Amino acid sequence: MPHEHRILVLDHLDDDALRRLAAAGEVVRADPASDDELHRLLSDANAVILRTRTRLTRSALAVAGRLKVIGRAGAGVDNIDVAAAAERGILVVNTPDAATDAVADLTVGLMISLLRRIHEGDAEIRRGRYAEGRSRSPGRELHELTLGVVGMGRAGTAVGRRCRLGFGMRVLFTDLREIGWLPFTAQAVGLEQLLAESDVVSLHVPLNPTTRRLMNECTLSRMRSSAMLINTSRGEVVDPEAAAAALESGRLAGYAADVLDAEPPAPDHPLLRAPNVLLTPHIGARTRSAQARMSDVVDDVVRVLAGEAPRFPVEA
Question: Are 247 and 277 in contact (CB under 8 A)?
């Protein structure tokens, strides 16, 4: 007897999540090598689950005549045309809090490494330059510094909480939305004031037309020359050429990022040659617990296929 639902899985899910899916329909695991292959797979799928690797564009959704639900295993949905999905009556669901703590932990780790030059000291020892590593410019203590959080959503709040309550940092934040009560002391300011007063600026915004290249030559010039910039949101939020130029000229003291505008970066990517840069390969959500929570997107997918309301719908 054929399965009622065909569920297309385009990225990794843990075994338990796959078993839960299999109870709801036929699970098809695939890694399409082209848009044509993706379109063919979508043409008879009732549900699709993905992470960040695959883009579901308007043209891709146009061929998905049977699709009822898109499950994003993670928080960001910039690789899904949510408006086009809504026009076609396709629900989009995600796991908005799955990687909050994992991303916040990594953000703080990157910040400390930049401020204490941990990665540079390690590199000097490996080059046989122990004395040179010790004689580098001294680091800075967190309790003396001001953190500026751009985007006080789940991850931004988690970072602010760690830095204020854990390290005693002054915390400023800016957000387009009205932010209510926070579990720590923080001051809401405009972006210009935040950039001018912060020793560390941490980016936690979704990627959209408003935030694309939010940090550009103009906004980077508003930062203190002694300030550090941290990006664990999306690579396209920062203009890489402008950031590299600011680092090379000394107008920006350091940049750490878990995300880049192109992943993996080309060998001539400007940030690979810029000084005082620390990069990680998009590992913000790569903890065992976060990966398991991201796989829980299957529960909302199953709910939608059963005609029930999802817990975490994404608004268009």
Answer: yes
Question: Which amino acid is present at 297?
Answer: V
Q: Measuring CA to CA, which residue among 134, 153, 244 is closest to residue 207?
A: 153
Residues near 196 by beta carbon (within 8 Å), at least 6 away in sequence? 222, 223, 224
Give 33's contacts (C-beta < 8 A, 6+ positions apart).
none
Q: Which amino acid is at 235?
A: G
| Domain residue limits, the chain | 6-98+289-305, 100-279
Asked if 80 contacts 171 with a C-beta cutoff of 8 angstroms, the reply is: no
Residue 1's pLDDT is what? 36
Helices (H) and strands (E) counted in the chain, each on its own, are 15, 12
Identify the CA nearest to 201 among candidates 162, 228, 163, 220. 228
- State in Å, rounded, how far the first CA of the chain is from the last one: 37
Instruction: Tell me 214's DSSP state.
Output: -
Q: Which residues are part of the catalytic machinery?
A: 234, 263, 282
Please give the Cα distance from 227 to 254 (Å, whole number): 7
Distance, CA of 195 to CA of 173 (rounded, Å): 10
6-98+289-305 matches 100-279 in fold: yes
Whether the upstream peptide bond of residue 264 has omega within 30° of 0, thus cis, is yes
User: Which pLDDT score is estimated for 137?
Assistant: 81
Find out whether 228 and 200 touch, Cβ atoms under 8 Å: yes
Question: pLDDT at position 3, please?
Answer: 67
DSSP string, 44-81: T-SEEEE-SSS-B-HHHHHT-TT--EEEESSS--TTB-
- pTM metric for this prediction: 0.91
Q: Can you give the pLDDT at residue 316?
A: 80
Which segments of the chain have a pLDDT < 70? 1-3
- The CATH number of the structural domain formed by 100-279 is 3.40.50.720
At 173, is the secondary structure helix, strand, or coil?
strand
Could you tell me if 71 and 48 are in contact, meaning their C-beta atoms sit under 8 angstroms apart?
Answer: yes
Q: Taking every pair of C-alpha atoms in the chain, what is the biggest distance, in angstroms?
A: 72
Q: What is the CATH number of domain 6-98+289-305?
A: 3.40.50.720
